[in-house]
Every structure is written in structure tokens, then in C-alpha cells.
Amino acid sequence: MCDNDSLDDMIEYQLRRGLSRRQFGAALTAGAGLASLLPIAAVGADVAVTESEVDIKTPDGTADAYFVYPSKGSHPGVLIWPDIFGLRPAFRQMGKRLAESGYAVLVVNPFYRTKRAPTAPEHPDFDDPATRSAMMDLMHSLSPATTQTDAVAFVGWLDGQAPVSKKHKMGTTGYCMGGPLTMRTAAAVPGRVGAGASFHGGGLVTDKPDSPHLLVPQMKAQYLFAIAENDDQRQPDAKDALRAAFDKAKLHAEIEVYAGTLHGWCPIDSKVYNHDQAEKAWSRMLVLFQSALA
Predict the structure, then answer these.
(1) Which residues contact 139 (CB under 8 A, 6 or more apart)?
(2) Are 224 and 78 in contact (CB under 8 A)?
(3) What is the DSSP string of 119-184?
(4) pLDDT (tens digit, 9 = 90+) per residue, 135-162?
(5) Which end of the chain has the lower number of beta carbons within 10 A, N or C?
(6) Contact present, 57 and 50 (Cβ < 8 Å)
(7) Model-level pTM greater than 0.85?
(8) E strand or H helix at 285, and its extent?
């Protein structure tokens, strides 16, 4: 998943660009002006959407989430797992953008067992050991068991909503630590999840018996893996293990290392955001969803 090395990479990148750590931290949770980071032609402003903050009952408590969907008709559902910084304005904006492309989108707070969103400080100071420790503790509070519980609950909740079409398979996307959560979701609810997309996902392939890539035989989902260049440099064999697992399961998977990208390059509030490569990955996700969720 996201780890201290990944966070250090993002911080070091900004220091080389002359951005202070305080400015970097503020950018991670800033809400104002996020829409301006998206190309006008890609926003899909002609599609009216309905959005709301929702609470979802799970066996472990009440999860807070953001639900957004086209105002007319029913559409394939998509479950979005955020990165370590959690449910925040950037992910609401990204979820809305996806809804404008014709999907009923649920962006969840994966840390709801501990606290409601926002779960990251407004201006996180990554030099502060207490702040970094708190964020890592939130991530480590999750487990394969909690993801299984949540995946079933969130997919079930989506299936109970009128804007979600039961005639279509669902999709799931995840960023950073959310990447492996998509794989656990696809394995937990294989009859409903038809496509998954992992953006700079961490911990997709490990040497542990519960490694996400070992779940591929339980899935029925087609996949997109958009891999950061520095993640690939750190673990060059991961892409090969993923490709072998999906080939053996006879499931389509598009697996690509995106040149020039650093871990965390896709969320629009990330200061390692790579616009051109993020747009490429977004477009590949839309192509996948159009074919796999039809």
C-alpha cells in the first residue's frame, strides 16, 4: 500500500520544485479551484448530476460516503476507494466527473471505523512524526477482512439505489492504497464487479499468502493497472506477476507503466499530479468501463 517511501517520494519531488512542505500539505486537501484542473472538454458539463453525502450501515458501523449519479435514468455503479488521504474535495470532484460520463458513483471513507471524513489534517505537516504516524495508523487499521466486509456492504448499498442499474456489472477504482482494495472487492463480489482500475496502487503483489494478486482466480473482472514509474523501479517484477495471474485466469488486464510519473500522480490535488498521464489513464479507464460494464 502507500508507505513511508511513497510519501517521501512525493515530498522530495515538491522540494525540488521549490514548494514548501506546508504548501504541499495544504494542496492535498484544498477544495477551491479543483474543477479548474480538469479540461473543460473532459468534464461533461452537459450531463446533469445529483450528488449527496450519505451514510451506509455496515456490520462494523456507519460509513460516510459521497454518492453522485446522472439525474436521469439508471447507470452502472462504480465504487471508488481513495488514497491514504481519504474522502476529500478532490475525490468528490473526480467522482462527479465520472458520474458526468454516465456512472452512478460512490466514493467512500475507508477509515469510517476510526473517524468520519475528513481524515487527513487540513494542512498536514509530513515532518511531524505524530501526523505521519496517525495517517499510517489509519491505513494499517484496514485489513483483508475489513475490505471484504466493506466491499459486500458498499456493493449491496449501491444495488439498492434506483440510479444504479442491476442489468449492468459494476466497476471499482482505487488510488494508492485503494488499488489492492479494488482487487479484494472484485474477489469478494465477483458476480457484480465486472471491471477494476488501479492507479499507482501499492501492495498489489506481495510475498504474503493474502497478496491481492493471488485473488485473481476468484475474480470475473477485467482490469486496468496504471503503474507509476518509480513504483515500477522499486518493484519491477510486480507487473509481470499481475500479467501472469490474469493470463492464467483468462481475464483481460491492461498493465502499463506510465513514463515520468511518481507515486500519487493521478488525484487532481496531488502536487505530483501529472496532467497528461493522468488524463491518459482516465481515458483508458473509460474505455474499459464502456466495454466491460455494457
Answers:
(1) 1, 2, 84, 177
(2) no
(3) -S-SS--TT-HHHHHHHHHHHHT--HHHHHHHHHHHHHHHHTSTTB-TTS-EEEEEETTHHHHHHH
(4) 899 999 999 999 999 999 999 999 999 9
(5) C
(6) no
(7) yes
(8) helix 275-292
